[in-house]
Amino acid sequence: MSEYTNYWLRRKVNRRAVVRGAGVVGVGGAAYAMVGCGDDDSTGSPTSEKGLLPTAQASPTPAKQPKPGGTFSFQIGGNPPSLDPYTNASFLNMYMGGLSYSRLLRYKAGTPEITPTDPSMEPELAQTMPEQPDASGLQWTFKLKPGIKFHNGRAMTSEDVKYAFDRYSTFDKSSHRALYFFLDSVSTPDPQTVVLKTKLPYADLNQVIGGEYGAYISPKEHAESDAAPTKMLGSGPFIHTEFQTGSSLSFKKNPDYFEKPWPYFDEVKVFIITDQAKRVADFSAKQQNLSWLFLPDERDQLKKNRPDALSGEQQGIAEDIYMRSDKAPFKDQRMRQAVSMAQDRKALRDAITKGEGVPDQVNFVGYAGWARQVKELGANAKFWDYAPAESKKLMDAAGYKGEELEFVHVAEANIYTQAYLDTASLAIANLKAVGFNIKEIATPYAQYIAAGTGVYFGGQYNHMGLTPRAVPYLVDHVTDKMSFKDGKRGRINQSYVNDPALEALLDKQRTQFNKVERLATVKQIEDMAALNQWEVFFSTDTRTYFWDKEVANYRDSAFFPYTHVMKAWFDKA
Amino acid sequence: MTTSAATAQDLPWHELRPRRSIGSSLWRIARQKPVGAIAAVVCLLLILVAIFAPLLAPHPPDQVAFPRLQSPSLSHPFGTDNLFRDVFSRTIVSSRVSLGVGFTAVFLATAVGALLGILSGYLGGWVDLLVSRLLDVVIGMPPLIFAIFMLTVFERNFTNVSMTIAIIYMPTTARIVRSSVLSVRNLQYIEAAQAVGNTPPAIMWRHVLPNVFAPIIVVASIQIGNAILTEAALSFLGLGIATDAQPSWGKMLQDSRPVWQAAWWMSIIPGGAISIAVLAFNLFGDALRDVLDPRLRGAA
User: Fold this and answer.
1) Contact with chain A for residue B193, Cβ under 8 A
2) Looking at beta carbons, which pairs linking B261-270 to residues 24 or more positions away fall under 8 Å?
3) How many CB atoms lie within 10 A of CB B157?
4) B65: Cα within 13 Å, side-chain hemisphere
5) B43-99, pLDDT tens digit by residue?
6) Backbone angles phi, psi at B277, to 5 degrees
7) According to the model, what pLDDT value does residue A471 have?
């Protein structure tokens, strides 16, 4: 069983692939070609016992002696609504959670030797990658590393891990309950061992517990205190010291961190900067060491302002149009196809991302080994073509008579960026150009997303809307987007997709541990999604990371940008 | 002399003063206040542009059909934006939202503010106390935060945006009117009106209001500029009512942010339109105040 248990997640780049990858950093999308197939050395601690250098990882650059000390700073684009990992799923605090919290597993990506889009995991709290599930496919055993302490000084045991999983999966205010639908029970045979039992063989378990919304372990005494929303208290490399709402977060080095010799920095400072222009200005003025998510125009400006800084590009956020596929007029597949063929995606790219990016079907964007580009979709690829005449024919065939259709989008530029608003503008213009009668509804974000689901995001819209794509971090992401099982819509099934044949495929793929078999199922799902155009996808763009050249042993990542900050140091002369 | 004096005594009172045509009166004011006159012409032009915007704009504001980021030229006098649209057409059409909201908000603020100011100033007592404290409460709220709150809670449409801005500016009008009423209510003609048995509402309507009308007009004309600026700020923040088909200058400014360094015209032109409108209405208001205020009449 251990041979096929998530073996595709253990893929690691070999030296040649890494060197090749380093050469093409800066070319968006090329990262897909860089995923090599090397040996799996993901077991055991990656650190040496004595020295400052990690020992078990290949490096594309000559090894340098780490220099502990200094204050590392970076920018984030918004104020984390809460720092409690159990009750808040905002990407803002989940991204930073790794500074103070630990998980059983974590992404490998984020250091120079790992391809940024590689979704492989490595052990964090766990001693090794799990060698289960057992023959039933239902039981996963994790052994904890020794000497793990919370920042309050208490030793972590398997009971703390059990508490965390129980809280994630059953607490009524948990933001992650849906994510842990597969979890049946958690047992603790001894203080160092945790056994997860699942309700079904679930192939994405590692990605769920270690991925973008991974199970950070916050101790009961902190999680149930009033301080939980404003303070992080975990067992991670940095101790959270201060949170100035809307302004900054501060961290200091955890001297008792269980993975020696990390961290190297004495302090970490996070600046909350909501204005994109200020982010550019601040990094240009060397106010922070790292920033990220810059669009091509901003990237070029920063490259001009900071020619000394290092940079890396990731395939970025794309938008999609969601439609009420459960009622007229978008119940008719031809209407949804017409929406897609009305879109001039190249013009959108020219307007918003300087022509950069590619049309995409998005379901697995950024997921190396799984993403399938539009041109690989066969006959269904034609729905990504800009074909206004064909679009009109489809509308006519569907019997559309020019009824007014509401198009909802968020109004503020500082939420999903100006690129999102520009996409909305052009998408609406394209729809009008082929004869759709569109009524634009620009709504405040607070109304769009209120109370976790919101008026529009929660599905209370009439016809169609625009959303940034949700970032896939596990293959079963498609269930979130397209399931309607037992009358219950998937968490982000905004298009009201409800297709029994699709549902069967969704059920099937999540239990397939063999990658080849699962890929075949996923392909069928993608083909169905392409033909039905439940969501009309635009192009993915490029988003650029910048960091000071003095920051050694750091690399951009398609996933968490700060997972491996503890491994970096300042290499100043 | 004798003849002329006798003639003057025989004439009705309203004919003692030489009659001037409206044209000559305006010309005289224009010569006295040339800056105000120019501002008035600009205001008039802006209003006409807003009224006839659909006829004046060469292209629909949301038409996506032109080369991207083309600098100003004969075919596109204000250039094109990053989304392939004609900036000239968008600037013209934007005047409708900017001026429409500005005028409506000021009309509401003036109507409510004047009513509260007259009631408060004339009636005094607990009415004055209540109205004054109410105004204190409204003034105590940060205007932009209040607007963001209102437009987040309530549906954003023309009426709600106008009402929100009106609430922001209403206290200023009310306070100025109140202070004017306080100086008027003790004058002899008011006492005379009371003596002959006029009711308070009749006195406020027939005698107080006409005598505080000048400051009301002046405050309103100045507040139009401020209201336009507030609407632009809200649109810039994504809280206005502007859409791609019906833009506003504030939204145009917001749209220009990603490319302002590469395309100066995308920010300079809507920014300039806002500045011109605000300046014109403020200067016009200043000139109006000078003309209507007897104390300032003839001042340099």
Assistant:
1) no
2) B261/A301, B262/A297, B262/B69, B263/B69, B263/B71, B263/B79, B263/B81, B263/B82, B265/B71, B265/B72, B265/B78, B265/B79, B265/B87, B266/B69, B266/B79, B266/B81, B266/B82, B266/B87, B269/B78, B269/B79, B269/B87, B269/B91, B270/B91, B270/B94
3) 11
4) 11
5) 999 999 999 999 999 999 999 889 989 999 999 999 999 899 999 999 999 999 999
6) -65, -45
7) 62
Residue B288 is predicted with a pLDDT of 84
Q: Where are the beta strands (DSSP E) in A495-556?
A: 535-537, 539-540, 542-547, 551-552
Q: E-assigned strands of A255-349? A: 267-272, 290-294, 310-315, 319-323
Query: Beta strand A248-253 with A193-198: parallel, antiparallel or unpaired?
Result: unpaired
SS3 A189: strand
> β-strand A542-547 against A290-294: which pairing, if any?
antiparallel
Residue A231 scores a pLDDT above 60 = yes
Q: How confident is the model at residue A1 (pLDDT cuts 50, 70, 90)?
A: very low
Nearest CA in chain B to A423: B83
Residues of A in contact with B253 (CB under 8 A): none
List CB contacts of A538: < 8 A, sequence separation 6 or more.
A318, A319, A320, A343, A345, A348, A359, A360, A423, A427
The burial of B14, by beta-carbon neighbours within 10 Å (0-12 exposed, 13-18 middle, 19 or more buried), is given as exposed
What does the mean pLDDT of chain A come to? 84
**pLDDT score for A370:** 80
ipTM of the complex: 0.70
Tell me the two tokens of residue A248: 């900054």
* Per-residue model confidence (pLDDT) at position A49: 32
Here the tokens at position A543 are: 């988003």
DSSP state of A121: E
Residues on A contacting B at a C-beta cutoff of 8 Å: 276-277, 295, 297-298, 301, 347, 350-352, 410-414, 418-419, 421-422, 425-426, 428-430, 432-433, 440, 442-444, 446-447
- Residue in chain B closest to A448 (alpha carbons) equals B152
d(CA A342, CA A355): 19
Over residues A255-265, the pLDDT tens digits come to 999 999 999 99
Of B84, B245, B261, the CB nearest to A440: B245
Q: Are A322 and A496 in contact (CB under 8 A)?
A: no
Question: In this predicted structure, what is the pLDDT of residue A80?
Answer: 85
**Residue A458 pLDDT level (bands cut at 50, 70, 90):** low
Q: Which of A275, A415, A416, A418 is the mutation pick for testing B, counting most B CBs within 10 A?
A: A418
Contacts of A440 in chain B (CB under 8 A): 243-245
User: Pick from B64, B68, B259: which is nearest to A429 by CB?
Assistant: B64
The proportion of chain A whose per-residue pLDDT surpasses 70, expressed as a percent, equals 85
CA A215 to chain centre: 14
The C-alpha angle with vertex B165 and arms to B162 and B169, in degrees rounded to 5, equals 130
Q: Which residue reads 């893929």 in tokens?
A: A11
C-alpha closest to that of A127 among A208, A58, A42, A221: A42
β-strand A551-552 against A310-315: which pairing, if any?
unpaired
- By three-state DSSP, how is residue B154 classified? coil
Q: Say how far apart CA A405 and CA A462 lie, in whole Å.
A: 8
Q: Considering only the beta carbons, identify the residue of A277, A412, A433 that sits closest to B257.
A: A277
Q: How far apart are CA A560 and CA A565, in angstroms?
A: 10
Structure tokens at A60: 């594309």
The pLDDT value given to residue A45: 34
Q: Are strands A404-410 and A464-468 parallel, antiparallel or unpaired?
A: parallel
Q: How far apart are CA A163 and CA A223, in angstroms?
A: 10
Q: Give the position of tokens 């977060």.
A: A249
